[in-house]
Specification:
Blueprint (H helix, E strand, L loop, with lengths): L2 H14 L4 E7 L6 H15 L7 E7 L10 H7 L1 H5 L2 E2 L4 E2 L21 H6 L3 E5 H14 L4 H10 L6 E3 L2 H10 L3 E4 L3
Parallel strand pairs: 1-2, 1-7, 2-5, 5-6
Antiparallel strand pairs: 3-4
Helix pairs in contact: 6-7
């Protein structure tokens, strides 16, 4: 594991986790975008009970089969991530060719009021992606496409969306978050 990645991820968590109310969502599967929906629901329901965004943090850990939610549209199209990872476009009911949950369009979520990753980040929510899964799946993809694993991994690393932090592994991030006062909720399928 890259020691710089560990230091960056530790810093990111220490600086980003704020407030009295902290939760970490474990998102190992696309699960119809529930890891993201539950992050939004945490903010919406806390706000409705009088808690301000500044007094809470929702951390969504995208790992295993949910890692594409951390990636740019170009990677979804090039590598057919919707098909490979089982994430359909809700408007076409076919495998998604773009990331429908970073900056969603009408119809991407089951309800129009649900905020995507970008808007949730603006409110203070944190999103991270498992580097172990990125390394493993980019290697598998490289092999299936007769490409060099290091080239695909570099492209995937460069294709992580703004503000989403790569962490050594998703389970590492979940453990660290709990050590820093976050509760834990499984948001898988």
């Amino acid at each position: 594991i890259d020691t710089r990645l560990v230091a960056d991820a530790d810093d990111w968590l220490k600086k980003g986790l704020k407030g009295e109310h902290r939760i970490a969502y474990d998102g190992p599967e696309p699960h119809d975008a529930f890891p993201i929906i539950w992050t939004w629901a945490y903010y919406m329901t806390n706000n409705s009970t009088g808690v301000q965004d500044s007094n809470m943090t929702g951390l969504c850990v995208l790992r295993h089969n949910a890692i594409p939610f951390a990636m740019k549209d170009e990677l979804w199209a090039k590598y057919k991530l919707g098909e490979i990872f089982g994430s359909n476009d809700n408007t076409t009911q076919k495998p998604a060719l773009r990331n429908p949950y970073y900056s969603p369009k009408e119809g991407d979520f089951p309800l129009p009021v649900i905020d995507g990753i970008q808007k949730m980040q603006e409110r203070g929510a944190m999103f991270c992606v498992c580097d172990l899964a990125l390394t493993f799946y980019s290697g598998v993809m490289a092999q299936s496409m007769n490409m060099k694993p290091e080239d695909v991994k570099a492209e995937w690393d460069a294709g992580i969306l703004p503000g989403i932090q790569a962490v050594p592994s998703g389970v590492w991030a979940l453990g660290r978050a709990q050590e820093m006062g976050c509760g834990y909720i499984y948001a898988g399928g």
